Amino acid sequence: MNLGQFQKELVAYASEIGIDKIGFASAEPFFNLKHQLIRQQQLQYQSGFEEQDVEKRTHPELLLEEAVTIIAIAIAYPSKMNDAPQGTKGARRGIFSRSSWGKDYHAALRERLTLLEAFIASHYPDARMRSMVDTGELSDRAVAERAGIGWSAKNTNIITPEFGSYVYLGEMITNIPFTLDEPMEDQCGDCRLCIDTCPTGAIVEGGQLNAQRCISFLTQTKGFLPDEFRSKIGNRLYGCDTCQTVCPKNKRKANQIHAEFEPDPEIAKPLLEPLLKISNREFKEKFGYVSGSWRGKKPIQRNAILALAHFKEVSAVPALIDLLESDERPVIRGTAAWAIGKIGTAEGLHALKIAEEKEKDSEVLEEIQKGLAFFAEKSKG
């Protein structure tokens, strides 16, 4: 079988195993990306979660000798939740971003890439391959753009004509010289909705993101959330979809294609108060299969506390006081103190005053004082 015919069979096989788009890109170095990444580092716009070695991120030949082609894949995920529960007073709910609905996409894409590798090896036993998803060295988006999967949008996501930006991306470097696909023209035009509606101004300009201000990144941090962002995250427990939901290219893109990514509404939009006391074991059993659990329960609990403060949920005050008085983690105690002040009940004020006398941690004390300051401002008003 000639290579051209095999490439057609590979594309057909990819569709059979649940890959929604596949493209083929050159494994030449990503020189433009290299300049962008260096600039991002200089501006301190990186999240810190990505590979820090710019050479590895932009030179595929450092990751696989004789690299010739990169196969890019995309799998669509749903943007719509059926029977989504509504939070009510006394039963408030948080939200996980759409990329964390259903099965962890890292596992789903790796499974498909493993099948692709086996299919290639069955026809080309000497083929060399290296696959990666999200946490690999290469930029998934740069590869997808070069492979014609979609265009790199102003919100820094890849947008596909078929599925909008609601796609998971992965890639495989190989030494097989496949026929290459053409990159897609940018179709954002003059639209800047994503830039103008980003809650924290994280999209500095079209195509440039300050990850340090991005709510998606901030919800994954483990320390105290900086004050300026606490009122911005709303009820988000993990991730942020604002720059996707406002995008005109995502209109009517429900993408309810793969059952494994359909959300369990009670996981994707969980009740907030039960999260405050959930054990590690319970958290792993309930949320362990979704990608949003990768940082453990602490960031989710901190975000749940901030969400309850956002709602000014009075019914949560006893549980927050319990955290303030007995939780071993300073970030949780301190965030609870801040939230108690934000909600502003007499019971909360009493608890903060007692905690101020007992607390030994300087950062928690600072948060207690912030909480008390909310009461002082209220009394002035």
Quick recap of the structure?
The protein is α+β, with helices and mostly antiparallel strands and 381 residues long.
Describe this structure in words.
There is one protein chain. By secondary structure, the protein is an alpha+beta fold. The chain is built from 16 helices and ten strands. The protein has helices at residues 3-16, 31-43, 54-58, 105-123, 140-146, 193-197, 215-218, 227-230, 242-245, 265-268, 280-287, 297-311, 317-326, 330-343, 346-358, 362-380, and strands spanning 21-26, 69-76, 95-96, 129-132, 151-152, 158-159, 167-174, 203-205, 208-209, 236-238. α13 packs antiparallel against α14 and α14 packs parallel to α16. 42% of the residues are buried. Keywords: 4Fe-4S, Cytoplasm, Iron, Iron-sulfur, Metal-binding, Oxidoreductase, Queuosine biosynthesis, tRNA processing. It holds the Pfam family Fer4_16. GO terms for molecular function: epoxyqueuosine reductase activity. Residues 176-208 form the 4Fe-4S ferredoxin-type domain.
What would CATH call the architecture of the largest domain? Alpha Horseshoe
Strand order across the largest sheet: 1-2-7-4
Average pLDDT across residues? 96
Number of strands: 10
**Regions with little confidence, pLDDT below 50 for 5+ residues:** none
| Rounded radius of gyration (Å) | 23 Å
How far apart the termini lie comes to 80 Å
Helix content: 40-55%
Fraction in beta strands: 5-15%
CATH-derived topology of the largest domain? Leucine-rich Repeat Variant
Number of spatially distinct domains: 2
Query: Major sheet, described briefly?
Result: 4 strands, antiparallel
Order of helices and strands: HEHHEEHEHEEEHEEHHEHHHHHHHH
Structural class: alpha+beta
Cα shape: elongated
CATH class of the largest domain: Mainly Alpha
Number of helices: 16
